[in-house]
């Protein structure tokens, strides 16, 4: 299964509110090139420098997860895969932005890996989604310490082409900028929606969360396992529900409509 452990914990109100940067570890312990980053924590992608092995790992992952997505993902996610042209080669961020920006005003920016919450929130508030520029190694296909290009891009970017979800992500970033000491409540909201959200559709229960759709084990578990709890989405309840990051989830919250995400309960 795809899990991010070590520097990610859900036990501190000072943590970052997203799977990409909770309790960021010392930079020397992280894989990315932090020395070459800009003040906003971004780095160039250098799409032409990925090796044949990098491309092979991307292809293995994207073929497997796309096949699972066709069975388990909501239509909005599948539409994003097609609209943005996500296929068997590592995407060029600028080429993707040329398609994405006219749709919802969002663009993706390269980052070296995990980034602090303030930087992450600011990017979201300005319709920029940070995507790690390096991809995992073959021996990390199903178990990863830090989020990589595949998780960030395949899991998150397709839904940024959907206007409702795109608006939610920007609103989430704005709330993060304003959250102060209650940022841990937003962390839970992000976890149970953007990372591990489910939605009921005319075609049945479907996944939209990146942590589900980028993991072969989690996607089947979330939709099919009889031993998990699937609760109706209630933003206030979500924000007071602790989560675990080092195992398959035991609890998921289920939307009936993406517009429910725009509910803004008080952060208290």
Please characterize this protein's 3D structure:
The protein is of the alpha/beta class and 268 residues long. The chain has one domain: Aromatic amino acid hydroxylase (Phenylalanine Hydroxylase, Orthogonal Bundle), CATH 1.10.800.10. Helices cover 39% and strands 10% of the residues. It has 10 helices and 6 strands, in the order αααβαβαααββααβαβ. It has helices at 52-72, 75-83, 93-104, 117-125, 149-156, 163-178, 183-195, 210-213, 216-224, 235-238; strands at 107-111, 128-132, 198-201, 204-207, 229-232, 251-255. The chain has a 4-stranded mixed sheet with strand order 4-3-6-5, covered by helices on one side. Strands 1-2 form a two-stranded parallel ribbon. Strand 5 (229-232), helix 10 (235-238) and strand 6 form a beta-alpha-beta unit. The protein starts with 51 loop residues before the first helix and ends in a 13-residue tail after the last strand.
Q: Quick recap of the structure?
A:
Helices cover 39% and strands 10% of the residues.
Task: Spell out the key features of this protein.
10 helices, disordered N terminus, alpha/beta, 4-stranded mixed beta sheet, Phenylalanine Hydroxylase, about 270 residues
Write the layout of secondary structure elements.
Elements: H1 52-72, H2 75-83, H3 93-104, E1 107-111, H4 117-125, E2 128-132, H5 149-156, H6 163-178, H7 183-195, E3 198-201, E4 204-207, H8 210-213, H9 216-224, E5 229-232, H10 235-238, E6 251-255
Parallel strand pairs: 1-2, 3-6, 5-6
Antiparallel strand pairs: 3-4
């Amino acid at each position: 299964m795809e899990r991010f452990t070590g520097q990610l914990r859900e036990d501190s109100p000072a943590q970052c509110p997203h799977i990409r940067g909770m309790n960021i570890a010392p930079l020397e312990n992280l894989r990315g090139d932090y020395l070459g980053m800009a003040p906003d924590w971004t780095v160039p992608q250098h799409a032409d420098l990925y090796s044949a092995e990098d491309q092979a790992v991307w292809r293995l992952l994207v073929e497997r997860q796309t096949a699972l997505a066709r069975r388990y993902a909501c239509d909005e996610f599948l539409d994003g895969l097609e609209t943005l042209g996500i296929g068997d080669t590592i995407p060029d961020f600028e080429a993707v932005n040329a398609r994405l920006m006219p749709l919802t005003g969002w663009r993706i920016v390269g980052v070296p890996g995990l980034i602090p919450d303030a930087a992450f929130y600011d990017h979201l508030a300005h319709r920029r989604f940070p995507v790690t520029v390096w991809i995992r190694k073959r021996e990390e296909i199903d178990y990863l310490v830090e989020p990589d290009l595949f998780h960030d891009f395949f899991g998150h970017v397709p839904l940024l082409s959907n206007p409702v979800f795109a608006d939610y992500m920007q609103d989430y970033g704005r709330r993060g900028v304003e959250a102060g000491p209650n940022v841990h409540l937003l962390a839970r909201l992000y976890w149970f929606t953007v990372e591990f959200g489910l939605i009921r559709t005319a075609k049945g229960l479907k996944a939209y969360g990146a942590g589900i759709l980028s993991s072969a084990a989690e996607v089947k578990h979330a939709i099919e396992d009889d031993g998990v709890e699937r609760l109706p989405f209630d933003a206030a309840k979500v924000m007071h529900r602790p989560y675990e990051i080092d195992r398959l989830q035991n609890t998921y919250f289920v939307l009936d409509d993406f517009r429910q995400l725009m509910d803004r309960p008080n952060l208290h």
